[in-house]
Amino acid sequence: MARRLAAPLRRLGGVVFSVILTFLGLTAVTFVIGRFMPIDPVISIVGDKASTEVYDRVYKELGLDQPVVVQYATYLSKVVRGEFGNSVMTARPVLEDVWRVFPATMELASLALIIGVLVGVPMGVIAATNRGRVVDQIVRFMSLLGYSMPVFWLGLVGLLLFYAKLGWVEGPGRLDVAFDDMVPTITGLITIDAILAGEDEVFFNALGHLILPASILGYLSLAYIARMTRSFMLAQLEQEYILAALAKGLSPWRVVWVHALGNVWVQLITVVALTFGSLLEGAVLTETVFAWPGLGLYMKNSLFAADLNAVLGATLLIGTIYIFLNMLSDIVYTLVDPRAREPS
Amino acid sequence: MMDAPLLRVRNLSVTYPSDDGDFKAVRNVSFTLGRERLGIVGESGSGKSTTGRAIMGLARPPARVAADELVLGDIDLRTQSERQLRRLRGKRMAMVLQDPKYSLDPVMSVGQQIAETHRTHLNSSKAEAKAASLEMLNAVHIRDPERVYAMYPHQVSGGMGQRIMIAMMLIAGPELLIADEPTSALDVTVQSQVLSIMDELVRERGMGLILISHNLHLVSSFCDRVLVMYAGQIVEICDAGRLADAQHPYTRGLLAALPELGRRRHELPQLQRDPAWMDDIVTPLETTSVKGGA
Questions:
Q1: b/e map of A262-274 (b: 16 or more CB within 10 Å)?
Q2: Burial (0-12, 13-18, 19+ Cβ within 10 Å), B136
Q3: In 3D, which of A239, A251, A179 has the Cα closest to residue A209?
């Protein structure tokens, strides 16, 4: 019994160790960025008209006279306790701000990822199984388009067409003003909260706001996921087990969608996890175009206001999410690939 | 009672179109197979594997397969639709591939892969398929079928993997088995074990077996008849026991290249190839010469 538990425990220990190490590296990076930013943290507090004595006092209070190592240790101990300082812009603790805006980004990125996977994976499979034919060309062209199209331009054109001209979707923002604060915040995802509260009208309004930016982000991730799926699938279709599966009389459909795709997933998990990470972080432009009150917009505003605490706090959060996603993909990996279930 | 032959092949050709003209991988191959063990030998690229795949209807695209006759039992394989062929594969004819490390799906348990053949052809329930699979694992001499059923391909050894492969291919009761280099990826110690299990099953079920191999020794000791291929065509067919009397210079050359125990030899004799063996040559192997124009 003890031996059976030893392997998973060692594995878990390894994961925890690597997470801690990555986190230390991440805080070091944000700390260094904080040092090298051409923003004087003292001046952003006292203002540029303060006297030298006041400046010096605050300088000491911030611990800037200490050796860098001590400063980093102080920073680290604060970060661990969740103290990122106050945001200059909102005058609230950064952590509180970030928690408030994060669900909006989460909602957007999740729907985008769902679109990206549900459409991108089948597209990649169909392209691979019809290699060189018209369907393949169409998929590859669409991928290329999604790859090379700037997201803010797509967003603007999308708004112009589907909101201003056709009126199929709602405009910028997460909700019409009339619906603001109509449902209690439980998960922070308005669509889910609306369902929980039983308010269909709020739900459909929120969905109307969500669908266009989510589709655009979904299209971008779809482009990447479809391309990767296609190339993974092409590699799998060359394998001997595909011939064996055909030789035992399975339908091409089953060979492709069960056997080959089962193996494609093993490789695809990392791609999907990283796509989700970049969706969470890379929504800055989309959120700006759609006035989406999420993490991206918060970061952009903080950056423009030289609000260092907020920027670093948000950066750290995104980094932590990346670490978490990697950990998650490691776990999902063992579910999909029996070879990963054993200690190496 | 005289048995009708299991498989009749007449003038089977497999052609790969390419920019430099067509490449004929298999040229006018004809033979019949009863409920016997037929060996196909030849060097790499002689077309022996392609012949096997063409019979299964699984020649690697974009191959063009043509034959005057390609009949399995009473079924003309040439006129079968893809869907009809699919019903024959696994059910009437099956194929064992070289290396179980690559020919089993790595993310599906071996039991499920065996059961899958059963369910596909016999329309069985999950429980029936599992019971039949366990029985089949037993038939290929796997000691603890329940445990092995749940294992994944990476957890089994090469010899066990190949026995699982055989189980997967024979569970729906085909009458023809094509084994393409079934032991060349295995350790020498388990080769004969796998062969004898295959032999046992083929005999018990009265099946026909085509054993494709480059190993002359193995084929001559295991099979009833041997068919020697060179450059896509059959150069000799003879009884396995009388291989020593083979006439064709290529076969003789192959035999001469076999090392023998108790005889010192420092150098392998060079196999002298005669272009005349390829009589009607259409293979443009030497088209790399510089062409004028363009």
A1: bbbbbbbbbbbbe
A2: buried
A3: A179
Residue-range domain boundaries for chain B = 7-260+267-278
The shortest C-alpha distance from A119 to chain B (Å) reads 23
Nearest by CB to A239, from B56, B102, B120: name it.
B102
pLDDT band for position B265 (cuts 50, 70, 90): low
Beta bridge partners of B197: none
Nearest to B59, CA basis, from B68, B47, B45: B47
Tell if the CB–CB gap between B154 and A339 is shorter than 8 Å: yes
Q: Is the pLDDT of residue B93 over 80?
A: yes
Q: Do B169 and A245 touch (CB under 8 A)?
A: no
Pairing of strands B176-180, B208-213: parallel
Nearest Cα to Cα of residue A34 among A72, A87, A89, A80? A72
CATH superfamily, domain at A96-341: MetI-like (1.10.3720.10)
CB B7 within 8 A of CB B176: yes
CB contact under 8 A, A249 and B56: no
Note which residues in 128-167 of chain B have CB less than 8 A from chain A: 152, 154-155, 165
If you classify domain B7-260+267-278 with CATH, what class do you get?
alpha beta
B104: nearest CA partner in chain A: A241
Contacting residues of B for A243, CB less than 8 Å apart: 58, 95, 97, 103
Paired tokens of B287: 């088209």
> Which candidate, A207, A214, A252, places its Cα nearest to that of A233?
A252
Comparing B114 with B189, the larger pLDDT belongs to B114
B91 vs A: CB within 8 A: yes
Domain spans, chain A: 2-80, 96-341
Query: Angle at CA A114, nearest 5°, toward A328 and A261?
Result: 75
ipTM confidence score: 0.88
CA distance A261 to A241: 12
**Is the pLDDT higher at B274 or at B32?**
B32
CB nearest to B107's CB, from A246, A251, A336: A336
Q: Are strands B37-41 and B225-230 parallel, antiparallel or unpaired?
A: parallel
Q: Do A249 and B86 touch (CB under 8 A)?
A: yes
CB contact at 8 A, B160 and B77: no
Render pLDDT for B106-164 as a digit per residue (tens, 0 to 9): 999 999 999 999 999 999 999 999 999 999 999 999 999 999 999 999 999 999 999 99
SS3 B235: strand
Name the residue in chain B with its Cα closest to that of A240.
Answer: B103
